[in-house]
């Protein structure tokens, strides 16, 4: 599990947007890029080329789940 202090310091390397922890992924709150970064062995893989872009529906569901949109 990622430490809360570390999570507060991390941001999306592409847009500098905040991230939310969703299971074993960090998801950017940026609606335009909708990047998801995986976590392996408690280490976030914060490489843009290793990330995936979520569909709008997937991204919205995650943001709703974490109270980032209504």
Structure, described:
This protein has 70 residues and is α+β, with helices and mostly antiparallel strands. The protein has one domain: Single Sheet (N-terminal domain of TfIIb). Strands 1, 2, 3, 4 and 5 form a 5-stranded antiparallel beta sheet that branches. Strand 1 and strand 2 form a beta hairpin. The chain is globular, with a radius of gyration of 11 Å. The termini are far apart.
SSE blueprint:
Layout: H1 4-9, E1 19-22, E2 25-28, E3 35-40, E4 43-44, E5 52-53, H2 56-65
Antiparallel strand pairs: 1-2, 2-3, 3-4, 3-5
In short:
This protein is of the alpha+beta class and 70 residues long. It has two helices and five strands. β3 and β4 form a beta hairpin.
List keywords for this structure.
70 residues; alpha+beta; N-terminal domain of TfIIb; 5-stranded antiparallel sheet; 23% helix
CATH topology: N-terminal domain of TfIIb
CATH class: Mainly Beta
Structural class: alpha+beta
Tell me, rounded to a whole number, the average pLDDT.
95
The rounded Rg comes to 11 Å
Query: Quaternary status of these chains?
Result: single chain
What is the number of helical segments per DSSP (H or I, 4+ residues)?
A: 2
**Number of strand segments:** 5
Distance between the terminal alpha carbons, to the nearest Å? 27 Å
What proportion of the residues is helical, as a percent range?
A: 10-25%
Largest sheet: 5 strands, antiparallel
Q: Based on the structure given, which CATH architecture is correct? A: Single Sheet
Order of helices and strands: HEEEEEH
């Amino acid at each position: 599990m990622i430490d809360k202090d570390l999570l507060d310091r991390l941001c999306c390397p592409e847009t500098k947007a905040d991230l939310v922890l969703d299971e074993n992924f960090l998801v950017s709150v940026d609606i335009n890029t909708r990047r998801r970064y995986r976590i392996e062995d408690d280490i976030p893989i914060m490489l843009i080329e290793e990330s995936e872009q979520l569909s709008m529906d997937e991204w919205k569901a995650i943001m709703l789940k974490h109270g980032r949109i209504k």
